[in-house]
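--- STAGE predict ---
source: upstream dedup step, 1 unique chain passed
mode: sequence only
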Amino acid sequence: MAEPARPFTPESLAEYWSCSSQHVRDLIRKGDLPAFRIGNLIRIRREDVERYDQQQAEARERAAPQGALDVSQRPYTPETLAERWGCSHQHIRDLVRTGKLPAFRVGRLIRVRREDVETFERPQVEIEAAAPPPPPRPAVIPGVPKRRRHIVKLADGREIDLNRD
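--- STAGE serialize ---
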């Protein structure tokens, strides 16, 4: 006759699920996961674990069509965007801080919408063509004297403009 499967301990179940044993104990305490005691020892039947796993899978399936974000719709984190662009996450944070890349915050976390990434990735020529041209600068500003040009001629014939901004 086959030996019955040994029940899980909170620690062995935590290892099986890749979570903490405290999480398993919390599920037991809330009544979400049935368990039994042998003296001070907590044990969880394998059938109960399989039933809990099945319930969780069904709950995920029910929740998915109700507007859960698909991975392709999630906003980028600085780390995932840095991986996509092949740069550091600090560079992404600097772009956000300087206002060159639109982003939003969730608490202290920075998130960048996918539409903003696509806009940022478009060639600058398209963006400049779509933007209205800047207003023309006046040649002479009234009330401000014209600066004198300081051009130095070098011995080899080159000229250097010392007023260059």
